[in-house]
Amino acid sequence: MRPAQNDVVWSRGQAVRKAAYDAYKRSPQWFARRQRWAEEWRRRANALWDGAAPQCAVCGRLWTLRDADLHHVTYDRLGAERFDDLVPLCRPHHEALHHIYDSVPVWRTLGRSKATFGIIAALKGSLERSGV
C-alpha cells in the first residue's frame, strides 16, 4: 500500500479501503484485467491509429504490462473496470499524479475523474515548459 504523504492523515476507513485496493492490485484478477486492457488498446489502435502501442498519457513513453501502470480514473467499477476507467501512465508519472492528488486537497474536491485529467494536463504542461 502506498504510504500517506507526510502532510496527509488517513482515516481508519481510508486505510482499510487502501489495504483492500492494494490486495486487489496484487491479485490475478487485476493482472488479467491489465492484460485485457492492453488487448483492447491494440484492437482500438489497429482500427484508429495503425496499431500504435499504448503510451503514458503524460510523456508519451511506451506503456508495457511489465513496467508501467494503469491509473483508475474511477473506482466505481473496481474489479469490473471498463476500458475508459483506466489511463496508461509510466510509473514516475503515476507516482507524481498520486503525490499531487494526495497532498493538494483542492484536487480531491473536483472528484477523481476531473482531478486525474487536470493533473495529467498540469504534468504535461510542466514537461512542455521544461522543454522535454
Describe how the helices and strands are arranged.
Elements: H1 12-25, H2 28-48, E1 68-72, E2 86-90, H3 91-103, H4 105-109, H5 112-130
Antiparallel strand pairs: 1-2
Helix pairs in contact: 3-5
How is this structure best summarized?
This is HNH endonuclease. The protein is built from 5 helices and 2 strands, in the order ααββααα.
Order of helices and strands: HHEEHHH
Number of domains: 1
Terminal Cα span: 31 Å
Strand content: 5-15%
Poorly predicted ranges (pLDDT <50, ≥5 residues)? none
Give the averaged pLDDT, no decimals: 88
Q: Give, in spatial order, the strands making up the sheet with the most strands.
A: 1-2
Q: Structural class given helices, strands, pairing? A: mainly alpha
> Oligomer, anyone?
single chain
**Biggest sheet architecture:** 2 strands, antiparallel
> What is the percent of helical residues?
40-55%
- Give the count of helical stretches: 5
Radius of gyration from the alpha-carbon trace, in angstroms: 15 Å
Number of extended strands: 2
Shape: globular
InterPro entries: HNH_nuc (IPR003615)
Organism: Nocardioides hankookensis
Protein name: HNH endonuclease
GO molecular function, one term: endonuclease activity
Provide structural commentary.
The protein has helices at 12-25, 28-48, 91-103, 105-109, 112-130; strands at residues 68-72, 86-90. The protein is mainly alpha-helical. It is globular. The mean pLDDT is 88. The protein has one domain (12-130). The longest helix is centred in the first third of the chain and has 21 residues, at 28-48. It has a two-stranded antiparallel ribbon with strand order 1-2. Helix 3 (91-103) crosses helix 5. It contains five helices and two strands; from the N terminus they run ααββααα.
